[in-house]
Amino acid sequence: MPESPEVDALAGFLDAAASGRQIDAVDVLEFRIVKTRATTPATLIGRTITGAARHGKHIELKLGDESLVVSLGRHGWIRWVEGERDAIEADPDQPPSLATFELSGDAAMQMTDAGTWVSLGLFVVRDPAEVPAVAKLGPDPADPGFSRAAFDAALGGRRKQIKAILQEQESLAGIGNAYSDEILHAAKISPVAHAAVLGDEERQRLFEATVAVLRGAIEARRGIPIDQLKAAKVAAMQVHGRTGEACPVCGGTVRDFTFSGASAQYCPTCQTGDAPL
C-alpha cells in the first residue's frame, strides 16, 4: 500500500517532471476507476499541468482551475515513461496500466494497479476537498505544524487498538500498515494496546515516533527514482515484513500477529514485555 513517504516522493517528482506539459491524449482502459462522471479525464485534453501535491495518500495534479486527484488505493501507482512505451506494457512483471495520459514532450503518465481488485480512482474536480476521502482526512504528521495536541485529539480516549487508529485516515493522514508497524516498534508499544490505556509518557513516545518515522522516511525517499521507491521502502523496514528475522534494536526475533483481518509485525522484547501476541 502506498503511504505518505512514497506518495510524497511521487508528488515531488511529478511536480518537477510534469509541470508545464500539456495533456495531449487520455486513454482509459478500466472505466471503473473514473469516479466523476460529469467531468471525465478526457475533459482535461489540451490542459497544462501546473503542479502536483500530496493529500494523505492521494496525488493532486493541478491544471489551473481544476485538478486531477488520483486515489492510489491499496496497490495503485503512477508510472512515468518517456519515449518508447511498448516494452513496458509487454513486461509481465509490470503492473497493468488502467489509464494513460499522453503529455507533450513525448512523455506519459500511466495509472497502474497491481491488485487483484481495482482500488485506483480518478477524480476531476475544482477543489481536492470534493473527493470524499480527501475531505475526511485527519491531520498529517508530516506537516510542520502537526502538534501533540492534534495527536492527542486523534487518539482521544478510545478503546480501540492503537495500530488501527494510526491507519485510520480520518484520524491521521498518510499512515498505512507498514509505517504503523515501524512507528509502534520505535515507540516500544504493543500493536494491540488500546489508546485509552496509554499514559502520558507512552503517548509522548508514540507522538515522537510518529513524527520521526514519517518525516525521516520522507527525507530518505527524496530523490529516489519513483520506480525504485517500493524497493527502498521495503529495504528500510525494521520490523514490517521481517517475521523471523532479528530485531535490529535488541536482537530478539520479530514475530507476526494476525487480528481482525489485518496483520502486524512486532518485536516481543521491545514492545510486549517478551510476551508473544
How does this model look, in words?
This protein has about 280 residues and is an alpha+beta fold. The protein has helices at about 5-15, 85-90, 130-135, 150-155, 160-165, 175-185, 200-220, 230-235, 270; strands at about 25-30, 50-55, 60-65, 65-70, 75-80, 95-105, 105-115, 120-125, 255-260, 260-265. The chain folds into two domains: about 5-135, N-terminal domain of MutM-like DNA repair proteins (Alpha-Beta Barrel), CATH 3.20.190; about 150-235, Helicase, Ruva Protein, domain 3. About 40% of the residues are buried.
The ordered H/E elements are HEEEEEHEEEHHHHHHEEH
Specify the structural class: alpha+beta
Walk across the major sheet and give the strand order: 1-6-7-5
Number of helices: 9
In the CATH hierarchy, the architecture of the largest domain is Alpha-Beta Barrel
CATH topology of the largest domain: N-terminal domain of MutM-like DNA repair proteins
What's the number of domains?
A: 2
The proportion of residues forming helix, as a percent range, comes to 25-40%
Percent strand equals 15-25%
- Poorly predicted runs are none
Instruction: Report Rg.
Output: 20 Å
State the fourth-level CATH superfamily of the largest domain.
MutM-like, N-terminal
Outline the biggest β-sheet: 4 strands, antiparallel
Task: Note the gap between the termini.
Answer: 24 Å
Mean pLDDT: 94
Report the principal-axis shape.
elongated
Number of strands: 10
